[in-house]
Amino acid sequence: MKKIFYLSIIILSLTILTTHSQYAYADDLADPPRTNTNTNTSTNSASASLSDPLNLNSAENTPQIIIGKIIKAALGIVGSLALLMFIYGGLLWMTSAGNQEKVDQGRKIIVWATAGLAVIFLSYAIVNFVIKSLVG
Predict the structure, then answer these.
(1) In this structure, what are the phi and psi dihedrals at residue 61, rounded to the nearest 5 degrees?
(2) CA-to-CA distance for 11 and 18, rounded, in angstroms?
(3) pLDDT of res. 18
(4) Strand partners for 34
(5) Of 34, 55, 106, 129, which is most buried by a Cβ count within 10 Å?
(6) In whole angstroms, what is the distance from residue 116 CA to residue 127 CA?
(7) Per-residue confidence (pLDDT) for residue 54, from 0 to 100
(8) How many whole angstroms separate alpha carbon 74 and alpha carbon 106?
(9) 82, 89, 93: which is closest to 118 by C-alpha?
C-alpha cells in the first residue's frame, strides 16, 4: 500500500510540474514601463493579458458550444481516471507474487478499466458529433 501511495505522489508531482510551468512566464508579456517625455510626469503602465482557455468572450459562443466544451473537459478527466485504474490494476497484478486472488482482482480492474475507456471514447465521439451537427 505504501508503494501505491508513493507512486501516486510522484505522478501527481510530475503532473503539476509539467502542466503548470506554462504560466510561470506570464509577466514577460507585460509592457515595459513608459515615460512620457512631453511633461514632467512619468507613467508606469504595465499590463498582462492571458488568453481565455474556453474562449467564452467570442461572439460565436452559444450555450451549446460552452456545454460541449465542458463535457469534453469532463470526458478528458474521466479518461485520465480510467487510465490510472488501468495502471493500478497492472501494478496489482505485477506485485501479486503468485497470489491468485490478487491476480484475479488486478485482471478484473484492467478489464473494467478497458471497458470504461471504450465507453469514454464512444461518448466523446457522440458528443463531438452532436455538437458539430448543432453548430452547423
Answers:
(1) -85, 120
(2) 11
(3) 64
(4) 43
(5) 106
(6) 16
(7) 61
(8) 26
(9) 82
Sequence letter at residue 42: S
Signed CA dihedral, 56, 60, 65, 69: sign only? negative
Q: What is the mean pLDDT of each run of 10 residues along the chain (136 residues)?
A: 76 68 50 53 62 65 76 84 91 91 94 90 84 77
- Measured on CA atoms in the order 66, 70, 75, 77, is the torsion positive or negative? positive
Q: What is the pLDDT of residue 44?
A: 55
Instruction: Report pLDDT for 39.
Output: 53
Query: What is the residue extent of each domain of the chain?
Result: 59-135
Strand spans (E) along 1-136: none
Q: What angle do CA 52, 128, 80 make, to 5 degrees?
A: 70
